């Protein structure tokens, strides 16, 4: 598969987040052979309604992938894919919720010490 550029591979951090003004679909990309992730987020255009809420939930959604969460079809929830930005824009909630399955998966993948 595609390999990240050396400049990215040489960064030290578990998660590297790129905020871009370029038109891109947000993603969380696991780096080959490591537990690290490269996350890319498009910053919103100024002045659009609900931008802060949408951006907040897109970032949380992509970080959810780095924690092991996957897409599902339960609308108006954080990990709904590909509906999370639409759900966030239409929601009156500041944060889209996790489902019970999401919570169970997080507990299984990251048990308390």
Plain-language structure description:
The chain has a single domain, classed as Collagenase (Catalytic Domain). 33% of the residues lie in helices and 14% in strands. The protein has helices at residues 6-9, 51-66, 84-90, 100-109, and strands spanning 15-20, 27-30, 37-42. Strands 1-3-2 form a three-stranded mixed sheet, covered by helices on one side. A hairpin with a 6-residue loop joins strand 2 and strand 3. The chain is flat, with a radius of gyration of 15 Å. 17% of the residues are buried.
Count of spatially separate domains: 1
N-to-C SSE series? Answer: HEEEHHH
Strand order of the largest sheet: 1-3-2
Termini separation (Å)? 36 Å
CATH topology assignment: Collagenase (Catalytic Domain)
Brief summary:
With 113 residues, the chain is an alpha+beta fold. The protein is built from four helices and three strands; from the N terminus they run H-E-E-E-H-H-H. The mean pLDDT is 85.
Keywords:
single chain; 113 residues; alpha+beta; Collagenase (Catalytic Domain); three-stranded mixed beta sheet; 3 strands; flat
